[in-house]
Amino acid sequence: MDTALRDKLLTVSVATLATALFKRGLRNQVIQGVHPVRAKGVNMVGPAYTLRYIPAREDRNQLAEFRNPEHPQRVAVESCPAGHILVMDSRKDPRAASAGDILVTRLMVRGVAGVVTDGGFRDAATIGGLDIPAYHSRPSSPTNLTLHEALDLNVPIGCGDVAVFPGDILVGDEDCVIVIPAAIAAEVADEAVEMTAYEDFVVEKVKSGTPVIGLYPKTKDEFTGEFEAWRKQNGR
After folding, report:
1. Which of these, 18, 25, 104, 229, is most buried using a 10 Å CB contact count?
2. Alpha-carbon 166 to chain mean position
3. Phi, psi of 192, deg, nearest 5
C-alpha cells in the first residue's frame, strides 16, 4: 500500500470518510454491527484480504478438519500479506467464532495490519490485549466449525452488509470500520484530510461559543479568512 495514502488515512475518522464517500454516491460503506474488540488509539489501515464462510454442514466440519494443511481458515492466516487486513464474511452470525487468539496472534506476528469479522472472536479478552487491531460483533466461544465452513480466499465477500473486494482499502477507528473502493482511495483520503482540518477548526470555534449556523457547513464568508489563518498558525 502506498505509504503516503496510508499516512493520510491514519489521521482521519471513519465518520469523515463516510461523508466523503457519501458525496460520491456511496452510502453503504460502513460495516454494520462491528466494533473494536479493544480500542488501540490509532487507526487500522490496509488493503482487504478476504475469507468467506458458508453455513457448516456436519459431515464436512468435524475437528479433524483442522489437521488439513489446506483448511482455508488456516491458509488465510498464513497467506494474508503483511500490511493487509484479513476480512471475514461470517454472515453476521456470532454464535460461533470466526477465529481465536492463537490465529490472531499468528496474524500479528506475520505483520498483518488488522482483522475484521461480522461474526465474533473466541478468546476476545486476550485478542483485545494483542498489538493488532481486531473488530467483531461480540465475543463467541464455540469453534467456527460449529456453524461456519471456511471456503474461499480472496474473493468478493459481504461483511456487515458491505461488499468487500480484495484490495479495497479498509479504515477502522475507535467506532467502526469503513470500506473504500481502491480506485478512489487516494482522492477520498485527500478530501478527508482537508475536511478534518476544517472540522478541527470548527470544534475550536464551537468550544469558544460560536454558533454552528454558517460555520458548519461553512456558508458565511467571514469564516474563510479565519480558517486560513488558523491553518497557518497550526501548520495544517
Report:
1. 104
2. 13
3. -65, -35
Rounded Cα gap, residues 91 and 118, in angstroms? 7
| Bridge partner list, 159 | 162
Distance between CA atoms of residues 229 and 112, nearest Å: 40
Band (59; pLDDT cuts 50, 70, 90): very high
pLDDT tens track for 88-124: 999 999 999 999 999 999 999 999 999 999 999 999 9
- 41: which DSSP letter? S
Cα torsion at 140, 142, 144, 145 (round to 10°)?
-160
Task: Please report the sign of the dihedral spanned by the C-alpha atoms of residue 31, residue 37, residue 42, residue 47.
Answer: negative
Between CA 203 and CA 171 the distance in angstroms is: 23
User: Which 3 state secondary structure label does DSSP give 214?
Assistant: coil
For residue 48, the tally of other CB atoms under 10 A from its CB is 24
3-class DSSP state for residue 50? strand
